[in-house]
């Protein structure tokens, strides 16, 4: 009889731990991430601006945070998305991480990117802007590598990363 009672307590403890894990995973968190933004109605020269944008995520894991780079950024009065990464159809993902969960390789995939009508930037310029935005958030070149995949380049090197490799 005591064994049955102990087994029931173990089942209850397990159920509580599972429920608390899911509850923590879905707790919304306010954060921010640097994105390359452009407002099509901007007066003056066409310039990509790197701006920290507020975001809400439901999971604190690095993988989910990295994916915020390609989430749309809509603002009142802007008439749509301002994030060039999402507008052009690039994706940003966590590809490799170390034992502590820190990112060691982030991949920017521009293989399906398309330049939207009326936008002044090439896909390559937006891929380089995405690389710069990721590098702003992960400045240590030795710790976190960035791989950029394009239609003509599936090796994963971008001009920005090649330039960083040449720095003394």
Structure write-up:
- The protein is α+β, with helices and mostly antiparallel strands.
- The protein has one domain (28-166).
- The chain is built from five helices and five strands.
- The protein has helices at 2-25, 62-66, 84-88, 123-137, 159-166, and strands at 29-37, 49-57, 91-97, 103-109, 145-149.
- It has a three-stranded mixed sheet. The protein has a two-stranded antiparallel ribbon with strand order 1-2.
- Helix 4 links the parallel strand 4 and strand 5.
- The chain is globular.
- The chain starts with a helix and ends with a helix.
- Residues 18-24 and 160-168 have low confidence and may be disordered.
Number of domains: 1
State which percent range the strand residues make up. Answer: 15-25%
Overall SS class: alpha+beta
Could you give a short account of the major beta sheet? 3 strands, mixed
How are the elements arranged and paired?
Elements: H1 2-25, E1 29-37, E2 49-57, H2 62-66, H3 84-88, E3 91-97, E4 103-109, H4 123-137, E5 145-149, H5 159-166
Parallel strand pairs: 4-5
Antiparallel strand pairs: 1-2, 3-4
